[in-house]
Give the backbone structure.
Amino acid sequence: MLKSSRLKTLSNLWFVIPVIIIIASLLVFPLFFGGYLSFFKSVFRGVPKTFQGFTNYVKVLTDIDFYKSFLRTGIYTASAIIIKIILGILFALALNKKFRGIGIFRGIALIPWSIPPFVVALIWYGILDWSGPINEILHSLNIQTVDWFSYDTALITIIMINIWKGWPFFFMSVLSGLQAIPDQLYEAAEIDGAGVWKSFWKITLPSLKPVILTTTLLSTIWTFGEFETVYLTTAGGPGDATRTLPILIYETAFSKFKLPLGITQSILILPIFLVAIFWVVKLMAKTEGDL
Amino acid sequence: MTRKKRMKIIKTLRIITIIIMTLMICTPLYWVVLTSFKPDTETMGDGLGRLWSDNFTLDNYKKVFVYNPMWEGYLGKNLWPAILNSLYISGVVTLIAVVVGIFAAYGLTKFPTKFNPSVSSFVLFAYVFPPFILVGPLSILLNKLGVLDTRVGVILAHLLIAVPFTTWMMRSYFLNIPKSLVEAGLIDGTTKVGALFRIVLPLAAPGMVTSSVFAFTRSWADLLYSLVIINSTDKMTLPLAITMMKVGDVYQWGVLMTAALVAAAPPVIIYAILQKYVVGGMTAGAVKS
């Protein structure tokens, strides 16, 4: 009896084995392999050279640029996310009620999100060019033109680009969240004399809380790890103005050819990601019901 | 304030918000499309920002698809090789990711074992995991396997991005298909795989379309892994080739924006057509439907 149930488990597992193998060999194994490599000085043709213990860890943890980059990525992520949430909710509320032609506008809202990130970066690099259309418009309105990629402005600029591309993700989640709120709740509130403003704070926002939390966590993880939009606009510059962690890691590993050092940097930021990832996995598993 | 008056104010605010949103999205895109039809003389220097042109031309499209002398020696004659490389890589990635995803989702939703919850969480973990963390060790492993600077190398790396995603998405589609349908099929003597193809898949067609689209576009859009894996010109993906166009201090803005449009067109068009499915699919697992 026991044997047959084991056999059954085994035969049922066949279906999931390919996905386990793929994730194990492309994610889990590289992760541990990276941990191993972080103890070496260099890697030559795939072979690690010169074991040096925790030297790389000491190097990264005593490097002020690492902390600066960390803080910068935090600012970038936090400010982008807050505005993405606000825009997502605002536009979802505006497009919640059905009217003729609503499909077109909901479709338009999807466009920024469906354009590949590297294309978004290039487009905005052109639009914000010194002689690009934004400065042209400012000039024609007799407003001082702006160098959008200077040391003082570049971080704000890449935050704006990230927002332009990223808010539809919140828009879509919030929109499906809004549609799940029963109309009766609003009707009841109206009978009780609650105005639009009050129903928004008392009904809409609380009902959206789970959706917004999950979407915010996902977006935080992905915004923190965003590489393309920064790489293709400022590439981290000017100076270190926009050197976020993904850019720092890429530079260390592939421009300065210090692969183990770059890997050590990614390992050191991993715990923060893991906390966020486990949290969101727990939340999403709960919404999905029986795992 | 009367109720009627309040409703009117809200309606006006709603319309204003929608107009702002539309302008925010469409104005930049208008400029990109416009620039792709401008002659070089109007995109070098001060003409770049002008919101109209008096000399529309197809020159930039000819340069992208037929011949651009500026690329001779470092990018080749035109963008076709890069487009075909990207189509090939994203095509193979999509095929593998969807097939693997279907089988895994089938097992996870229809044949429970005590391991299923852990496997589901494992897949979800991989889906949420930011791929840039692994770029170092993965590039070394691909080097060891001898697939650095090959399309196979990029395909392997993209599987990491695509497979957890398709699996998780197919899983939420399969959850809506009653287990009893499969059980009935099995009692009638169909094999498990037979029940998958005859009973489950026909019902999950929208899920297959959506996950294919997502797998394809995620692979199509990736720059980081091609950047790290590919060196040779003839193996460049489209994102990599376009990135290479952005060298020096003076850009061929017309050509650059045309190429950007060419890269953006497939996902934008596909998502526009499949809008209804995409919205449901993208929030799968994040939002209860």
Notes: Confidence is low (pLDDT under 50) at residues 285-289 of chain B. Residues 3-36 of chain B form the longest helix (34 residues).
